[in-house]
Amino acid sequence: MRRADPAAARDLGDVERAAAAALPPEVWDFIAGGSGRERSLEANREAFDRIFVASRVLRDVSGCTTDATLLKRPVRMPVAVAPVAYHRLVHPEGELATARAAKTAGVPFTVATLSSVPVEEITAVGGTVWFQLYWLRERRRTLDLARRAEDAGCQALMLTVDVPWMGRRLRDVRNGFALPGHVRAAHLDGGAASAAHRSGRNGSAVAAHTAEAFSPSVTWSCVEELRAATRLPLVVKGVLAAEDAVRAAELGADAVVVSNHGGRQLDGALPGIDALPEVADAVGDRCEVMVDGGVRGGTDVLKALASGADGVLVGRPPVWGLAAGGEAGVRQVLDLLADELRDALGLAGCAGVGAAGELRTVRLPQGGRA
């Protein structure tokens, strides 16, 4: 696997291209692809490109800072590393390298249920660590995993609610994608091989594995049960409808993530950034609101804040950095985001993150012309 010099990257597009060059095509497709015709995947990026900000002037931004809080804890910028499966697909150190980079950057790292490194090893790195849960077919295993994350020192639980089963990701289906032998779902399979390793002509082995493990019967009662089972802050990830966000807040969620799962579930699902303003208005101050999907730079973070978000999650870009340059590559991704966000805040007339929520935004029609 050819590694790039992460210091040579000037924006996240440079990192993306370096990662694509470094990875086998079938692994790149697994990371980069979406479901169906990939319309939601494309729309996530296009939606950000249609947003324009009415910047403010004649404001003192000499002390401009990206400092913020997420889940009432201080962070160096309002960004968290989103849960992404199987980091060891792209680098031998996997999630450990990504978590170390997130710690250095002062942002939370979210351990995925499908992490290729156990949560205990990741929390040992230090920093702020959240844990993402899927509701499993065996309810007791789900609650046991939540307790395991809490015992390991995770500081929040994030329940992903938009995956009753994995979306039809045609790149993986066509590739007959399966995990290589050295990559495991550390929290589900331990050291054993699973359906995710059995390649075939009939589709994605990873999809077959998740179909065995994930429950299609996840409902609001599961949110209630998890809320009652943990003292940790609870984040509900994968909402697009304002009514669902309000219901999550009413059941005790500390935050919601407005998300179409990076365009990897329902093809045709609304981009999170387009759903965000209505969700933020509906929940008010009942819980925090984050958004993901299509964030590719600091200006996108500014647009999300101006549209009502308290913060954003970034998924693919840290994995690009990991593939291109290991821990240093992830640090470069997060450093670029921080530098670009500070630049965007200052040029928009905001001395800090809080002022970004006061900016007016305009969403132009597709094509960028009024």
TrEMBL record:
CDD domains tied to this protein: alpha_hydroxyacid_oxid_FMN
Domain FMN hydroxy acid dehydrogenase: from-to ranges: 4-366
Cofactors required: FMN
UniProt superkingdom: Bacteria
Signal sequence, start to end: none
Keywords of this entry: Flavoprotein, FMN, Oxidoreductase
Membership in a protein family: Belongs to the FMN-dependent alpha-hydroxy acid dehydrogenase family.
The name this protein goes by in its record: Alpha-hydroxy-acid oxidizing protein
Organism: Streptomyces durmitorensis
